[in-house]
C-alpha cells in the first residue's frame, strides 16, 4: 500500500512539474509561424512577405526584447504589421514599448500599426500613439496605403479596433482599387460581418490570443466576444471563395500571464502570385 501511494505521489509530481514546464515554455518562448497565401492578382513570379506581430501586451522577451528583435531581424521581411494591443490597459510606463518601436524601425522602415482595445482603454493612449509616430511607425486606423516594393505593390488597409467601435470601414476603403491585392489590418475579427468589402482579399487580426488556454483536440476554451469554445480562435479561415481571415494567437497574455498548449508566436506571411 505504501509503495502504491509512493508511485502515485511520484506520478502526480511528474505531472505537476511537466505542466509547469509546458506553461513556462508556451508563455515565455515564442515561435515564428509560417503562412503562405496564393493570389491570382499577382503573376507567378511575384511575391512579398509580411511579418505580423499582435497582442504583445508590453511583454518582454529577453532584456529590452532583444530575443524578439533579433528574430525579427533574422526573418528579413518586406513589411511589418502590428495588429493592436502592443500595450496593456494597465501599462503605466511607455519606456519599454517605445524603445522596442525605435529598434523595430531601425530593422525595417515599413512598420504599420492599428489600435486594439487595450490601447483605447489605456489613459496614456495619446502619448503612446504620438510616441509610435515619433519612432517612425505608421498608424493606419481607418486609412489605407499603397505599398510599393521592388517589382510588386499591394494595398494595405487598417481600421481602428472593432471591438470598441473605433472602426470606420467606409473611410478606410476610400480610393481602394478592387483589382489590386488588398490586405486589411483589424485588431479584432469583425464577427458582425458575413462579408468584408469586395476588394479585400485577406484580413489579418489578433485579439483572441488563440484562446490563451487551449485543450488538446478541443482547442480554445474561451475568446473575447465569442464566449466558450469559439469558432474563430486562431489560424486561417475561408470566409468565402475570395476572402480569407487569419487570426494570429499573439505574443503576450492578458488577465493571467499563462499560455497552455498555445505557444507565443508571430507570423511570417508570404503572399505568392499564381496568375498568368
UniProtKB/TrEMBL annotation:
<keyword id="KW-0472">Membrane</keyword>
<dbReference type="InterPro" id="IPR029052">
    <property type="entry name" value="Metallo-depent_PP-like"/>
</dbReference>
<dbReference type="GO" id="GO:0016020">
    <property type="term" value="C:membrane"/>
</dbReference>
<dbReference type="InterPro" id="IPR004843">
    <property type="entry name" value="Calcineurin-like_PHP"/>
</dbReference>
<dbReference type="GO" id="GO:0046872">
    <property type="term" value="F:metal ion binding"/>
</dbReference>
<protein>
    <submittedName>
        <fullName>Metallophosphoesterase</fullName>
    </submittedName>
</protein>
<feature type="domain" description="Calcineurin-like phosphoesterase">
    <location>
        <begin position="49"/>
        <end position="210"/>
    </location>
</feature>
<keyword id="KW-0812">Transmembrane</keyword>
<feature type="transmembrane region" description="Helical">
    <location>
        <begin position="7"/>
        <end position="25"/>
    </location>
</feature>
<dbReference type="InterPro" id="IPR051158">
    <property type="entry name" value="Metallophosphoesterase_sf"/>
</dbReference>
<keyword id="KW-0378">Hydrolase</keyword>
<dbReference type="GO" id="GO:0009245">
    <property type="term" value="P:lipid A biosynthetic process"/>
</dbReference>
<keyword id="KW-1133">Transmembrane helix</keyword>
<dbReference type="GO" id="GO:0008758">
    <property type="term" value="F:UDP-2,3-diacylglucosamine hydrolase activity"/>
</dbReference>
<keyword id="KW-0479">Metal-binding</keyword>
<dbReference type="Pfam" id="PF00149">
    <property type="entry name" value="Metallophos"/>
</dbReference>
